[in-house]
Amino acid sequence: MKKRWIALDADKLIFECTEGKYIKENTFDNEKVKLKPHMERFKQLVKDTEDRISADMLGKCKIKGIKVFFSDPDTNFRYDIYPEYKANRPASDRSPLFYRLRKKLLKKYGYVKNTEADDVVAYYVREKNYIGASFDKDLLYGVAGDWFDTYFARQYMIETTKPQADRFNLIQTLMGDKEDNIKGLPIDSKYDMIPMNPLPEGHTRQPFKVTEKVAIEMLDEYGWNWEGIIQAYKSKGKTEEQALLTRRLTDMTQWSPKKGIRLIKL
Description:
- By secondary structure, this protein is an alpha/beta fold.
- Helices cover 41% and strands 14% of the residues.
- The protein contains ten helices and nine strands.
- The strands form three sheets. Strands 2-1-3-4-5 form a five-stranded mixed beta sheet, with helices on both faces. Strands 6-7 form a two-stranded antiparallel ribbon.
- Residues 191-197 have low confidence and may be disordered.
């Protein structure tokens, strides 16, 4: 029976260990909280993930172990090509404990500079036949391979095929990603923003964008390929360059250990 590694996107676990719903103590104002129990909780969550995947893959493969990956805490290549990346998220107001634990974990496990954990995990799933573990839909459905959804309410295996991943990424290129402030196509080419009453200071409004249903209808009309994407963008008054930027921001295949970041060219 073949043996396989697990590649874990561990960014979310830092939050779960310091500010998640199971944390009872007030950590926001207490910089003297000891790290040891939170480090132990992190290790336990990692082990729980490995054990669950081992059980789910019983009879299919043996698990060699689990490797933990984190994002560069300071930046990543997406900010270089789109400074507004994730700009819709308010400035993080994490507890001192969050940053202390992250610093210790990054020192222990390391990270790949100028990347997100997603990019690195995706490489090992695509190229090294690792089993991926994440709660991020861009990984679970946008990268072909075997995945374990780590979201606490799901916790199950997903097998994503190459055609399914290709389909997801084409739809995503039309929709963008609201959570990461990646702008998709507007419903109407006349609007990038529906005029309404001014918002309170510090708030932004997202335009009414193409939904998944509309994206599928457009691809059915124009074609499930890059030419179809171009035609869809042009139908909304947008350019091929804008389509390519969206694809580069959402694509998880642009990093490798030998070549580093190589932006996708279509």
